[in-house]
Write a structure and sequence with these properties.
This protein is an alpha/beta fold. The protein has 14 helices and nine strands. Helix 9 crosses helix 13 and helix 9 runs parallel beside helix 14. It is elongated.
Length: about 300
Amino acid sequence: MAAQPTIGFIGLGIMGQPAARNLLGAGYPLVVNDLREDRVRELEALGADAARTPAAVASAADVVITFLPEGKHVREVALGDDGLIEGADDGLVYVDMSTVGPAAIREVGEALDAVGVQTIDAPVSGSEQGSKDGSLRLMVGCDGPIPDEVGEIFDVVGGQVVRIGDRGAGQVAKICNNMIGAASTVALSEALVFAEKAGVDKERLVEGMSGATGQTWVLDNRAEEMIAHDFEPGFFGSYHYKDLRIGLEDAREYGVPVPLSSVNHELYKALEAKGRGDLDTSAVLTVLEDLAGLDHDV
């Protein structure tokens, strides 16, 4: 049996840390890097090795995975000083699981092509719990076939893998997914505010909509917490704001009208401006409550 490839893992945040733990649990040798030393130490205690720079990660790994907040971070980790490009050997596979938009990953991929690195975009959906459970859905963009060893890694991280198309296609799919997710979250927020102002019990409202045409993933998975004002983040509101911003920028580039996402972008911008971006994305409810004159603790 061939030895499992060494995985380099950069970005040990709310999504990356559980995914890295799952890979360690599956027996993969892991080399980790993050700006926060406490997160690195947690993985070291479980058997991972630490590397001081992305270049050092690349030189030690067969496959490198990144889970990072924005395109600027992916560009810096991949192409900046002490970046992956400086430590990469011909044959390295780089998999970015962040949500950064197609332009960023294509730019990075073209630069890494020149040193023999294959770049794959595989943004994930499923929130923190999905990362812990290993049940994330991966939307994959890849030029050519997905290498077998990478497919096996995907099975550990998520198991729900959809090949969307060539490099960058996974990013397009993830941005589309998050545009729809924002629309569903804002719509449910409007409904909950409407019910409260109209004197209707919100729990009964949700029960009435379950199984009806108003049923959505957000209704099934976030309504109870939204009613209780429990906004412990599974996906930060600031990240959803960032994803909508990417969607609007790319929509302008391709000449796509996005009126609904434009409004939702402004609502998430307000969430960020109110200092609530570190709450769950469902906390956009509080922006609608503010507009309606409802006084709730946040």
